[in-house]
């Protein structure tokens, strides 16, 4: 199969994770991706270097698993864009390409003479994607931005963490993959626009913008109700029980989310209808939320006598949303994933 984007050529002049993810997805869809690298900047962060058998070998630049994963489906060329020769070669690529994707700090490509206005003179219907941290307008436009910081600037970290510990990051560059996939949608829309009108365009594509767009419900809550929200740990704004509870064994946990009264009754029935469950303190969703800490203590006692997988399957068979907290070993050995 040639793929939906067969015949489309993309210049990928990007680094790190977000945009290389977007371009390799385009490659998976059939586009020809030309990865433009520079010898003056390393391909990825040192912490992300991964080699087979932990051996860099004689050509470590060709053995890094993280880089090769992100750059699959791509051709490659190395150019020094600070030289006239490198710039000329880059312009020649633009002449025969449909899409150019770059993720330099705002203004960098213009200073090199390779910005959108210059490139559209070479290829009038070019789709030019500029991915930056904060976009090309606004007071933060000159600021650098990397994936792991956007949980904080977009507001997500204001809600992730426990009230007595302060904000927490998710642990990885959470928004990188969001941005990568959104870039695919943006580029496909630009291709459709060019198909209909014959015109290319410049996409000012900011990671910050994508991050903020994922926070719509809490932004709306502030605009309408004046509530800025706050740290919730594993709790839910209105439902209880809703959390991650300990199970039998070392570091074994199960997430449970009760959404309806029927699910609550089924949950309590599975746990043997303990006497405390008949109290007015837990007789309704509102009452359970108001007495959530007491309820959490009871839930911890109940779940801690069960093995994670046993309770997980039992709850799911009863129609109760539940899921084990899995590490990477659990994921790759899971029979469902293998199928």
Automatic annotation (TrEMBL):
The keyword Transferase applies. It holds the Pfam family CoA_transf_3. Coiled coil: none annotated. Gene3D superfamilies: Crotonobetainyl-coa:carnitine coa-transferase, domain 1, formyl-coa transferase, domain 3. GO terms for molecular function: CoA-transferase activity. The keyword DNA-binding does not apply. Keywords: Transferase. InterPro entries: CoA-transferase_III_domain (IPR050483), CoA-Trfase_fam_III (IPR003673), CoA-Trfase_III_dom3_sf (IPR044855), CoA-Trfase_III_dom_1_sf (IPR023606). This is CoA transferase. It comes from marine metagenome.
